[in-house]
Design a protein that fits this description.
Distance between the termini: 51 Å
Number of domains: 2
CATH class of the largest domain: Alpha Beta
Number of helices: 10
CATH architecture of the largest domain: 3-Layer(aba) Sandwich
Low-confidence stretches: none
Bound molecules: NADPH dihydro-nicotinamide-adenine-dinucleotide phosphate
Strand order of the largest sheet: 1-11-8-7-5-6
Order of helices and strands: EHEHEHEHHHEHEHEEEEHEH
CATH superfamily of the largest domain: NAD(P)-binding Rossmann-like Domain
Helix content: 40-55%
Strand content: 15-25%
């Protein structure tokens, strides 16, 4: 068997096209341009690229973006002062603090300081709670990207056994919470580094989602024939970017598979734009 490709790049382009129309209609009816403020502390090259890409995405769909670049020695208090100013600024609808922040700054404190109605990454405890309760304000970008990739390729999660490998706050946990809500209706198993006999669990999956950060970790023997495999991992290796899944081997047993790059990553980016438009809609009634 050779798996069909879940093409995130293509789908992201399609969604950006839809969004551009929605943003234009919003601007025409409300006279307000949705605006995202990106906060970058320090000069981590990867973070700089991420922020640049996010701003480029904004421009493509007609969302305004601001860049607030602070030096690496910025104190927590200085960062909190900037966030308070952005929280109070009616022209700013979404605030994104690019992680990681330098070590003198507490990630937890900073994320908690963002006004939940502008928290377009959906990291604030209030927004996480809303997701758990099944009445989300914003959906977290990577998990929502995974859901959209499945849905728009006609792959229902209803009644499916979804096994997620990885329990981080940004991928595994929120995705598990979204999948167990009514409507998604999946049966979910979450694995982590202490899971005993991982292959015996991953082989039960109708849909296997892997987010651990280990290059080519999931091999064909760990996958049930015909399963859908979603690879969230992004690993920089001498051979370039690779996922957590051995793409060549697993393609032979899976029915559908995401490539890396070009799978979940582009959808993560597009979901930030979706959330910024949602925030602007909320802010303007
Ligand atoms: P974290 O490092 O925060 O979490 C990794 C998780 O994987 C942990 O729960 C850890 O278990 C688990 N894990 C690690 N090793 C194993 C193992 N051998 N067996 C089973 N479980 C294991 O990572 P993130 O969730 O932030 O990111 C995961 C990957 O996804 C990374 O490659 C990252 O770059 C990528 N990523 C991609 C995105 C995209 O848009 N495509 C967005 C976000 C992340 P434990 O909790 O026990 O330590």
């Amino acid at each position: 068997m050779s798996a069909e490709i879940l093409d995130g790049k293509l789908l992201a382009r399609q969604i950006r096209g839809e969004l551009a129309e929605e943003v234009a209609a919003f601007v025409a009816s409300r006279g307000v341009v949705p605006t995202l403020a990106a906060v970058l502390v320090g000069s981590d090259p990867a973070s700089e690229v991420y922020v640049r890409n996010k701003r480029r995405d904004c421009k493509e769909v007609g969302i305004e973006s601001q860049l607030h670049a602070l030096p690496v020695e910025t104190s927590q208090e200085e960062l909190l002062t900037l966030i308070a100013r952005l929280n109070a600024d009616d022209r700013v609808h979404g605030i994104l603090v690019q992680l990681p922040v330098p070590e003198q700054i507490s990630t937890e404190v900073v994320l908690a300081s963002v006004d939940p109605s502008k928290d377009v990454d959906a990291f604030h405890a209030e927004n996480v709670g809303k997701i758990v309760q099944g009445r989300p304000r914003f959906l977290p970008c990577t998990p929502n990207g995974v859901m959209e990739l499945l849905k728009r390729n006609g792959l229902s999660t209803v009644g499916q056994h979804v096994v997620i490998v990885g329990r981080s706050d940004i991928v595994g946990k929120p995705l598990a919470n979204m999948l167990i809500q009514r409507g998604a209706d999946a049966t979910v198993t979450v694995c982590h580094s202490r899971t005993r006999d991982l292959p015996s669990v991953t082989r039960l999956a109708d849909i296997l989602v892997v987010a651990i950060g280990r290059a080519n970790f999931v091999t064909a023997e760990m996958v049930k024939p015909g399963a859908v495999v979603v690879d969230v991992g992004i690993n920089r290796t001498d051979d370039g970017l690779v996922g957590d899944v051995d793409f060549a081997g697993v393609s032979e047993v899976a029915s559908w598979i995401t490539p890396v790059p070009g799978g979940v990553g582009p959808l993560t980016r597009v979901m930030l734009l979706v959330n910024t438009l949602t925030a602007a809609r909320e802010a303007t009634g």
